[in-house]
């Protein structure tokens, strides 16, 4: 989960030796989306995060999390240790995201039960730990399921040149996409200089609700562009209903390569 | 460009243009929380909370319990603490609760005197320590050793113990336990090899925690009615229990196989004899052997679970309630499924059965005893509100339990839950028949410290 999350949302590709802007002129909307989705994001990563849940009155609830990911040839593994608050401390979530069409493997360790349980990962439209991010946001999606249309080749986000691309499910995948993500379509803003998706506007199945995603505080860490702040806002009838912010710190790439970290035993042992 | 949006533009957007209006929702939301406070590298972690639990029974119990009218059943304060330390391969953890049941004290003080408590109830409810997981562990490559008090959850079946035979339980308030106390820790050493093979030795386990004489779930109340002033003497099995488990995972499938030679945590009635002050009933856990397997398989939004086990030398009550219990061979099984394909709703159902291979008419139950349970759990408002409904048909058609729960997470520190539990037993011979009027409303308040 977190691996894909890092992959799909956090990090940017290094297109060494090429000017992305120069390449950009020749890329189709699909090629840009695929390039954004398949960037090199390190073989492994570790980060600490605070997931801040903000209600409409501005009250905050905060989950402290340590995240690890490992990219292997056919599977991306991730494990996240929840450290606080009390009601989630000790909870661990682990995900294996396979490169092919196979469903993810997911497990949840609940300290109250002292038990690792499998989680059915087919429906990714559910809220991730009470946040505005869904599991599909976290895990990423299959770009083959979508059509991509260029809406604006000369968009701009915070002064940076970007493409604005519309993503809609292909007719043959429409039902699958809607049932698995809960989304109807989205607009993505992808920066031309580093292929980071920095903004997204998402049309949801839930009537009257729209979601707005933004990636901020981009930093170059170990040669990989990394947004240290991710934000998702749920809007209902044009008013903010709830918001969630992932704030990252202590980001390290390519430090851990030990597969033993990504086991149900690690989940039981707790934060590493 | 999204950092500063002219007020006019926002207003105009709201009125005229969805696209421009959307821009304001891309701005960074200011938060009070800062990552400067985050220190996850500390070897120390801790958590603590205070919990206030209050139960109200809205009927008079049908048993001859201390409570003989609708009244409070419990008013407890729990102070839970957990501290853990880690360095390299080593981990230490200590945790537990200090618990005080206030009702006997309130009754003594004349503040709340709806009914009178027995001596045993006084003893059981006064200040006491409830140990939670407290252990030392060490891991190196393929080896992981964990020694101390630990909760051993080797099964998931809710309606029948199939493979979950290593965990002690708290039977004082059936169906009213906190999630953390569904299973109790036992003194044990667990050695894991290759992250797949577990060898557990349980040392001097105590039987399940049972209700005090006079409590509304007193399992021996029936016996007391037949033989007034009977004393219950409980023995434990001091021999270490041994269990072996092998786990294997594939894409979409987890399996485990277990072998166990352990004391049961339930107790059997061994004998009833005449004592100096009256009759004495001797109860003790029995020794049983279990060979089982379980599997979890996922596909799409479905999780299918099964547990199957053969239980040897498991005791079953005799048809005559004062006769000793009898050895049986049993096949226990469970087939269940979870479905989470509807937003944040999780539906769970399971069917389980107990089949007594060497059944005869002198046993209290039937040869084939089915059970079932179902649960619907829905979280909404970003997991601030949880609604849960649960129903269980007790093994062998001995009654049913229904539970409705509403929990509201006011903040990271404070939550409140209200739970209504109803017990049903239609026939006098049903296990739950004596407890059918023990319906309870529980209020749980928890403050994180």
TrEMBL record, chain A:
<keyword id="KW-0449">Lipoprotein</keyword>
<dbReference type="InterPro" id="IPR033399">
    <property type="entry name" value="TP_0789-like"/>
</dbReference>
<dbReference type="Pfam" id="PF17131">
    <property type="entry name" value="LolA_like"/>
</dbReference>
<feature type="domain" description="Uncharacterized protein TP-0789">
    <location>
        <begin position="76"/>
        <end position="269"/>
    </location>
</feature>
<protein>
    <submittedName>
        <fullName>Outer membrane lipoprotein-sorting protein</fullName>
    </submittedName>
</protein>
<feature type="signal peptide">
    <location>
        <begin position="1"/>
        <end position="24"/>
    </location>
</feature>
<keyword id="KW-0732">Signal</keyword>
UniProtKB/TrEMBL annotation, chain B:
<dbReference type="Pfam" id="PF06980">
    <property type="entry name" value="DUF1302"/>
</dbReference>
<keyword id="KW-0732">Signal</keyword>
<feature type="signal peptide">
    <location>
        <begin position="1"/>
        <end position="22"/>
    </location>
</feature>
<dbReference type="InterPro" id="IPR010727">
    <property type="entry name" value="DUF1302"/>
</dbReference>
<protein>
    <submittedName>
        <fullName>DUF1302 family protein</fullName>
    </submittedName>
</protein>
